[in-house]
């Protein structure tokens, strides 16, 4: 009987651990605990994934632009530098806290009443877990998703901020 209880406890902890990690991230963001946010986020991985997403979306946006703007080529050449600086400035403990607390990408929107947030959880694999945080009046498809990756049996770390392409192109 004890063996069954131990197996059940292990399974519960194994599958409950990403929810616990998400709760810890919410608590750290809410309290502004930079050290706990830094411990919960793999910043280099998040930056690289976001740079890739932004570069692809902006390249597509430039390609869709049919104007004869002579500066379009310069914009295309400067895009990697601009994307890198923007991502480096945004993907910080404060930027991650803003997403978790407000459900949106803008750090400057951290003032005013806290929106009524909805949390949508999604197992992507046994080692990947997605959390979409959005205001209840915003569809989940228009909200960024935080992706956690298992590190060991019960530890999770944020490795990706997945942003919908139309949010980049139109926002």
Structure description:
With 171 residues, the protein is an alpha+beta fold. The chain is 55% helix and 18% strand. The protein contains 6 helices and 4 strands, in the order αααααββββα. It has helices at residues 2-31, 34-40, 43-64, 72-90, 93-102, 165-170, and strands spanning 117-125, 128-135, 145-150, 156-162. The chain has a 4-stranded antiparallel sheet. A hairpin with a 5-residue loop joins strand 3 and strand 4. Helix 2 packs across helix 5 (93-102) and helix 3 packs antiparallel against helix 4. The longest helix has 30 residues, at 2-31. The protein starts with a helix and ends with a helix. The relative contact order is 0.17.
Which features characterize this protein?
single chain, 171 residues, alpha+beta, four-stranded antiparallel sheet, 6 helices, 4 strands, 55% helix, 18% strand, elongated
How are the SSEs ordered, and which strands pair?
Blueprint lengths: L1 H30 L2 H7 L2 H22 L7 H19 L2 H10 L14 E9 L2 E8 L9 E6 L5 E7 L2 H6 L1
Antiparallel strand pairs: 1-2, 2-3, 3-4
Helix pairs in contact: 1-2, 1-5, 2-5, 3-4
Summarize the structure.
The chain is of the alpha+beta class and 171 residues long. It is built from six helices and four strands, in the order H-H-H-H-H-E-E-E-E-H.
Strand order of the largest sheet: 1-2-3-4
How large, in whole angstroms, is the Cα Rg? 19 Å
Model regions low in confidence, pLDDT < 50 over at least 5 residues: none
Query: What is the ordering of alpha helices and beta strands?
Result: HHHHHEEEEH
- Strand residue percentage: 15-25%
In terms of quaternary structure, what is this?
A: single chain
Biggest sheet layout: 4 strands, antiparallel
Q: Work out the helicity level.
A: 40-55%
Alpha-beta content class: alpha+beta
Principal-axes shape call: elongated
Number of strands: 4
């Amino acid at each position: 009987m004890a063996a069954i209880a131990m197996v059940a406890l292990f399974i519960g902890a194994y599958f409950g651990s990403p929810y616990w990690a998400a709760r810890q991230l919410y608590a750290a963001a809410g309290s502004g605990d930079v050290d706990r946010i830094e411990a919960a986020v793999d910043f280099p991985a998040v930056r690289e994934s976001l740079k890739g997403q932004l570069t692809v979306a902006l390249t597509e946006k430039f390609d869709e632009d049919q104007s004869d703007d002579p500066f379009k080529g310069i914009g295309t050449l400067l895009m990697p530098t601009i994307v890198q600086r923007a991502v480096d400035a945004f993907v910080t403990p404060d930027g991650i806290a803003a997403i978790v607390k407000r459900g949106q990408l803008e750090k400057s929107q951290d003032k005013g009443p806290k929106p009524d947030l909805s949390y949508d959880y999604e197992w992507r694999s046994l080692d990947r877990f997605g959390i979409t945080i959005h205001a209840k009046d915003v569809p989940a498809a228009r909200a960024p998703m935080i992706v956690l990756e298992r590190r060991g049996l019960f530890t999770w770390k944020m490795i990706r901020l997945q942003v919908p392409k139309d949010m980049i192109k139109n926002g």
